[in-house]
Amino acid sequence: MPASNRPTSRPTSRPGAGEVRDRLRAAAFALFEERGYDATTVGDIAEAAGVGRTTFFRAFGSKEDVIFPEHTALLERVRSRLETATTPGAATLIGIAEATRLVLEHYLQEGDLARARYRLTRTVTTLRDRELASTLQYHRVYRDALRAWTGEEAGRDLRAELLAAAVVTAHNHVLRRWLRGVVDGAGAVEELGLALEEALGTGPNGALPRPADEGTSIVVLRTPYDVDAVLPALRRALADDAPR
Amino acid sequence: MPASNRPTSRPTSRPGAGEVRDRLRAAAFALFEERGYDATTVGDIAEAAGVGRTTFFRAFGSKEDVIFPEHTALLERVRSRLETATTPGAATLIGIAEATRLVLEHYLQEGDLARARYRLTRTVTTLRDRELASTLQYHRVYRDALRAWTGEEAGRDLRAELLAAAVVTAHNHVLRRWLRGVVDGAGAVEELGLALEEALGTGPNGALPRPADEGTSIVVLRTPYDVDAVLPALRRALADDAPR
DNA sequence: CGAGAGTACGGTACTGAGTACCGAATAGAG
DNA sequence: CTCTATTCGGTACTCAGTACCGTACTCTCG
């Protein structure tokens, strides 16, 4: 943030702010692809980028951070978007969908970089763990936002958590399909909408949060038969209590 | 596994197999509580346990592994339980519930150890990440099992994933309540059942996957009412197809 | 009882990530 | 041109984790 308020370009031998960062990241990914993550030391990366090892750790906090840049910034954007979405009376579900699309489109813009990262995270265990951890940070953000929305009463907790998990899962599902090249960018954005509908239950027979009052739960599974046809089976199932 | 087939006790100065492991774990947790995780080196732990540093790494693969023991073993038990549960014709939902209870009860048996771990994982970031990663391993196991059950056709993928996320989320929700002392062991087991019902039943429409072949599925959620009492509600739900 | 095999342990030495600190070069302001 | 702030590079350190080797102990077979 200190470099943004310097309007003039840097015509000197001193590299522009952020340029070193880019060189380092490029060198890192190149080396990772070539010899693998573990076989590449931070010293190698720094040398390839023509800078000192110290500079690497100043630009990125750790070796892993080269691969997951701007993660915290993106998370913050999602958080602020959700915050405005979950104020009482706001169109919460739309806000959630928008926040989620924010994330997806971020990866879409990264393009090959995101795919290279995906290749690495599938191979190296520590990186996969790191990515999973960041996934659960999203879960937290959504959960907290939804909790603020649904209220804090007992029982709502689990509901908020389930919804958050569903949203994150839906997003990751679509993202992975794009990363694997199953769908293109436009298709992914479209699929995200459908996936969210399925995750949140806002689709055909939307089953959004049911009021917390006590009562009988009825789960309707679509079946070609009508009620009377399945009723005997239902009675039988209730009788021996061990549905199979 | 090499120690189990030695029937006689070890009367010598050589400690029994596994005893060193226990000493190390006890020393580790004591030091972690005392000075914190980061401020405790592996050398400190080994010294406190009266063994060499090398022995520590032989007993546990890494510093983190002291805190997460038997994780892989437990994961394997869940996997095998799910495997038998998702063979065609088996009582899948019950199998899932049982597998999940397996995990919960494992932690309940750990008792204070699990709670000490919880305290640590809340404080130290790397440990939290590690735990989250293990959480997502469970997600994978459930997802794969459910995928095998629902079939691989397009569209089922997301459904299996959503279900897996819901189950894991429900479990973690209950587990956290026990870890925080909100409920006791018996209460946690009971809550798990309810949470699973909520996770599997109230989520997205038809969250319970239809079997791959056509037919009528009957899902029975325990309710204090008998069939005739809920029948009107059932008819109504089927009639307008879009409850609330 | 004694020799040999297998194993658990301790110690040393190494690599690599990450941190702290210091000095040099450079850019900007006055 | 001088002073100051910032950035970079280099050195030295801590600590996790690995590889290797020698040793002490136990068990087994002769």
From TrEMBL, chains A, B:
Q: Which InterPro entries match?
A: DNA-bd_HTH_TetR-type_CS (IPR023772), Homeodomain-like_sf (IPR009057), HTH-type_TetR-like_transc_reg (IPR050109), HTH_TetR (IPR001647)
| Location of the DNA-binding region in this protein | 41-60
Per the record, the coiled-coil ranges are none
Q: Which UniProt keywords apply?
A: DNA-binding, Transcription, Transcription regulation
Q: According to the UniProt entry, where is the signal peptide? A: none
Q: Which domain of life is it from?
A: Bacteria
Cite the HTH tetR-type domain residue spans from the record.
18-78
Question: Would you tell me the protein name for this molecule?
Answer: TetR/AcrR family transcriptional regulator
